[in-house]
Amino acid sequence: MNLKYYRLWVIAFLLKFIGSAWDASYHFKYLFEEYSIPHIVNTLGFALGAYLLFQEWRRSHFMDRFSRNLITIGYVLFLIGIPLDFTYHIAYGIDLTTWSPTHFIYYIATDIMIFGVWRGYYMFTRDVKPTWKSMHTWFAMFLLECLMFPNMQQENGAISYDQYMQGKSIASEEILALISDPASQIFGGIPEWVYPIYSVLMVALLTVIMIRIFRDYNIPVMAAGLYILLRFVGKGIFAAVNYPTSYVPITLLLIPLCYLLFRKINWLAGLIGSLGYFLVLYGIHQSGWLITPPLVLWELVPVVLAGVFVPVISALVKPMPLVKKNRQPA
Question: Which of 1, 14, 107, 322 is deepest in the core (most CB within 10 A)?
């Protein structure tokens, strides 16, 4: 089976991953620039994907029509978002928030692209049982990264805010001159409680969906592990070149890990996963071992409710089709 086509998609999304992480760090140091290096890297990934998509439109070899059309919708939506985002930046000047409405156009568009490619890969390899050793882990990781990207505001912001308050900010003079309300501007004006609740909802939802589709508990764990690993690699590189770094959300791994340990999609796995995620994160925050986004203990309640909500709702939804039992592992 020739998987070169999908390996090229992995490279395309990896370039977008690198460009996006670099761009998040870049915006905590410099003002917006249309042709910054992070934007160029992101564009290279976008262009490689566009080329691969174009090849499928010319002559379909590796994708079904529905998957190809999904990716096309994602690309069109992303292109619509570009002039809107430029206009937003021009109107508001400094843009220290990943939660802006125009950025969410990018996120939704990229989610659709990744899902389309992932579905195409799943259909293309439908005679092989999905395992964590396949590219399913990579596509799951890319989707997780896209869902988690808004949190970069808080994760980068936590360290940048700490440096600013200690008079050790590495932001440019242009950025510092525009800071009048450090906490609000650096954290994007987003309430503190959004970070943990959003994280648990997105990770739990993606984990449960993957388990139901693939009947595999390892893929979500390995995808989360790969995501955390790449975040640490990026953090090390940014620190080495004196770029703003971010807190790496290591406790996210506890959510899919609990589903793996229980081998069931039930409220107890959701409860323990979300409880472990928050309590360990809160312990790290209180100890000062790492600089984390701001947290308050009362947030534990909605976080746990969010963690339990996902598997409970999942149980009410009609089960997805099982993969064929006669598939052989890759």
Answer: 107
Contact (CB, 8 A) for 146 and 107 = yes
Give the list of residues 6+ apart from residue 27 with CB closer than 8 angstroms, or none: 95, 96
Torsion of CA 298, 302, 307, 308, to 10 degrees: 110
Contact 175, 154 (CB under 8 A): no
pLDDT in tens, 209-264: 999 999 999 999 999 999 999 999 999 999 999 999 999 999 999 999 999 999 99
Rounded CA-CA distance 11/5 in Å is 10
- Burial (0-12, 13-18, 19+ Cβ within 10 Å), 83: exposed
* Greatest Cα pair distance in the chain: 64
How confident is the model over 48-74, as pLDDT tens digits?
A: 999 999 999 998 889 999 999 999 999
Q: Which residues pair with 329 in a beta bridge?
A: 129
| 139 pLDDT higher than 50 | yes
Q: Which residues contact 54 (CB under 8 A, 6 or more apart)?
A: none
> Which ranges of the chain does DSSP label H, i.e. alpha helix?
4-27, 37-58, 65-92, 101-124, 136-148, 152-165, 173-178, 182-186, 194-214, 218-240, 254-262, 267-287, 300-316
